[in-house]
Amino acid sequence: MLKIWATRDDELLPQKFNKFDQPIGDDAIKFTNFLGTVVRNGNDAPLIYKDWRQVPSEYKEKLWNLVKLKYDIEDDSMSWVIKALGKKWKDFKCELKKKHYDAHKTYEDRVADRDPRVIPDQWKHLIDFWNSEEGQARCLRNKVNRSKQVTFHTAGSKSFAHIREEENVANVNEDASNGLERDAWYSSSSCIHAISTHRIHYKKINEDAA
Fold this sequence. Notes:
Elements: H1 2-5, E1 13-14, E2 16-17, E3 23-24, H2 28-38, H3 57-68, E4 71-72, H4 78-101, H5 107-112, H6 120-131, H7 133-148, H8 160-178, E5 180-181, H9 189-197, E6 203-204
Parallel strand pairs: 1-4
Antiparallel strand pairs: 2-3, 5-6
Helix pairs in contact: 2-4, 3-4, 8-9
C-alpha cells in the first residue's frame, strides 16, 4: 500500500471495472485493500459516527477524491467505491473493538491501549459508545445475526465481481470444446454466490436431443 501512496499525482494507476461498476482484474484485490487504508485516517473518515450513513457527504466526497488522486477511475464507479469505503470503515471499527476494547475489562486499560492510527478523542468516543446501553445492544444484535448465518464466503479476499470475471474468462472456451452447457442462471448474482460458497456442477448436453 505504501507504494500506491507514494505514486506521483501524474502517475494514476489503472483499474478495470465491470458493467456493474465493480473492480475486476488482477489488481482488484490490491485496489480494495487500498480503500481500507484510506478510511484509517480519522481526519478524513472520523470514527465518531455510529453508522456510515451518518457520515456527512463532504467526508465521503473527500475520500472519493483521495482515491482518484491515485487511480484512474470514472465517476460512474463512485457509488460502488463509496459503499466499499463504508464497509472498510466498519471493518476497521470492528477490528479496533476486538483488539483494543474487548481485550480489556477496565475503562483505563481500554483508553491506554489506543491504536496509534486512531485520534485520541475519537478513541474515547468509541469506548463511550461501546460502553453505553445502545452500544451493548448493537453488539448483542450483531452476535445473534452472525449466529444465524448459514453460508460462508470461501473465496478468501476475492469479491463476487472478481470471481465472476475469472469464471467467465476461464470457462467460455472450455465449455464449447467439452460439450458442456451452463444453467441459465450462471451469470447471475445467485450463481456467483453459489460458486463462492458451494461447489457448482455442469451437466452434459444430450447429444441425441441437440
